[in-house]
Amino acid sequence: MGKENPKVGKPDNTAFTQQRLPAWQPILSAGIVLPLFVVIGLTFIGIGIGLFITSRNVQEIELDYTGDQEGAPCAGCTNATTNCKCTLPFKIENKFEGPVFMYYGLTNYYQNYRKYGISRDDDQLYGNIDSLKSPANFCSPYQMGAKQMPIAPCGAIANSLFNDTFRLFYKVNKVYTEVLLDDNGISWWTDYNVKFRNPPEINGSLKNAFEGTVKPLNWPKPVYELSTNPNNNGFINQDFLVWMRIAALPNFRKLYRRISEGNWSRSLPAGNYSLEITYNYPVLSFQGKKKVVFSTVTWMGGKNNFLGIAYLVFGSLCIVMALIMLIVYAKYQVQIDRDM
């Protein structure tokens, strides 16, 4: 047998393969680290102050309407079946500058539970005909309805769709004026335009497209009757899209409406208001609570004190660490000088 070639498997004799490229490795001295910590700390403290002040400027009012306490406005609706109406009066002390956003909130509701979170068929929600007639097994036990007909939309998320409704009135001189609520564009753009699609209409009718399917068990009406607006019906209904984007935490709020119609788009004036609630959604069985939130927004979004506080804490820690390192450095530097 011949001798093996010693060059086989040997990398080329280049600066890159032989790791001879020029490199720079910083030497972290006290003169570099201490000013760096101070600059980072001051920067984060400045940003934190700005975020905290901005968040404090957000106007917000939160109204609990669970009705779990005796004498509460909606206490009589907690044991009702459906469409129980209650009225929640409240007062706005200072004018809310527009635009004003209206949210509904739920507590102790674990949408992040894995079996709940995967209980959907994305192909069906994209309008796929085959998936419409044969939903994925992930939807079980909300996969098939009566007479083994497929449920559309299937799954636990869709079946538990939030269905309380609200009307807002402004009271002036004992006269109630309805505040117009806008449901246009409350969902994510990608959900409405990319992820969700209605199946192709048959003979110009969305109802015909869903023929051979049944509504989810807890829904009072089928998906093709969610709205009279064809651009807000079926799988692309705005309220449905908002609900299908599940929350990461057990206490959450979801956008319900924007107050952006007519004169109300500029502001919500101070005064007395009345919220008419159609109470449908049960929460007492899992010790949950329901609330409505009215909030303004800023360049950083809604009210979020935590973000500003987090920046302040991190910046303060950087300053404290810089001071500690300065003390340690000064102490041991003096000791070294003495020894020398």
Automatic annotation (TrEMBL):
GO CC field: endoplasmic reticulum; Golgi apparatus; plasma membrane
Transmembrane segments: 27-53, 309-330
Main location: membrane
Family membership: Belongs to the CDC50/LEM3 family.
Keywords for this protein: Membrane, Transmembrane, Transmembrane helix
GO biological process: phospholipid translocation
Protein name: Cell cycle control protein
Superkingdom classification of source: Eukaryota
Subcellular location: Membrane
